[in-house]
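Task: sequence design from structure.
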């Protein structure tokens, strides 16, 4: 994204920036709990930061549960400006991104200036409310679009002019209010699962051509064990064992069903609550965590066998 700020545009951006403090106080953005920054994690975060510093939108792509959202939030936080957030899904529309009219206000004025002469005047006012993309473009925020590829491509067409011409078009507005100059501090991070996942749509090539794609995979065993340990009360030994079990299961599962680091944290928290469960109990914990994506009784039984073999191998 290339935005050139001329002298006559400085005042425009200053006016937009004036509302940033109020906007920041009203934003509801997820926070990362128990952030872990190993060299492996830092390398990914630094790569994102490097592209953002050049003004390019970054598209994080990888399997579910590999830490895309967490690293996106932390990279945005370190920019040092407010962050706005939206989650994409099949029902997301352009209005969800840019905003729309929230209500119509009607006002009636009665003129009694001349005796026995009444003049009524009705005024209709439409209140426009900015949504996350418009707020970010106007005020120079970092825009995080989580689950970007779960939204229908048609909802995201509005982004093309943002990244190409530095202009956001508000489709339902008119006149000079229809176009918003993108603030030079505007940055964007997108997160997506791979196209093989259910409910995922491939974004249009014209939009992908304007982004930098950063592919992520599951972190290595040491980083995963550190993350699990920081999110639970497990010892280093127990956290390492939980991660080993999950990774053994992951290697046996098809894409789209592989348990991620989030699953390892869930197992670790249940492990902590039971305080050194037996292998049989640990098998039950792991089976519960990975059973949400089973397709049939046969599939469930095969996964249970995979769990039993993994727990035994990690003993």
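Answer:
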């Amino acid at each position: 994204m290339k935005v050139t700020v001329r002298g006559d545009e400085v005042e425009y951006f200053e006016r937009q920036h004036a509302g940033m403090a109020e906007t920041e106080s009203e934003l509801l953005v997820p926070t990362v709990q128990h952030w872990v920054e190993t060299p492996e994690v830092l390398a990914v975060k630094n790569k994102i930061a490097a592209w953002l510093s050049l003004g390019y939108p970054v598209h994080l792509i990888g399997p579910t549960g590999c830490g895309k959202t967490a690293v996106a939030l932390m990279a945005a936080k370190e920019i040092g400006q407010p962050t706005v957030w939206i989650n994409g899904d099949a029902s997301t529309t352009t209005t969800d991104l840019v905003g729309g009219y929230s209500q119509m206000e009607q006002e009636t004025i009665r003129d009694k200036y001349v005796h026995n002469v009444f003049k009524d005047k009705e005024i209709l006012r439409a209140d426009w409310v900015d949504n996350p993309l418009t707020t970010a473009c106007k005020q120079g925020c970092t825009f995080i679009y989580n689950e970007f590829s779960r939204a229908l491509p048609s909802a995201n067409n509005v982004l093309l002019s943002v990244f190409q011409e530095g202009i956001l078009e508000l489709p339902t507005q008119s006149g000079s209010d229809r176009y918003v100059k993108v603030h030079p501090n505007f940055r964007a991070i997108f997160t997506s699962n791979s196209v093989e996942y259910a409910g995922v749509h491939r974004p249009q090539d014209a939009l992908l051509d304007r982004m930098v794609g950063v592919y992520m995979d599951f972190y290595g065993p040491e980083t995963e064990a550190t993350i699990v340990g920081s999110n639970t009360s497990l010892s280093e030994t127990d956290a390492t064992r939980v991660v080993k079990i999950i990774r053994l299961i992951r290697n046996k599962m098809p894409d789209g069903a592989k348990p991620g680091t989030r699953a390892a944290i869930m197992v670790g928290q249940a492990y902590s609550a039971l305080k050194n469960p037996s292998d049989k109990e640990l098998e039950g914990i792991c089976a519960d965590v990975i059973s949400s994506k089973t397709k049939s009784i046969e599939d469930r039984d095969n996964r249970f066998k995979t769990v039993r073999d993994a727990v035994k191998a990690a003993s």
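The mean pLDDT is 85.
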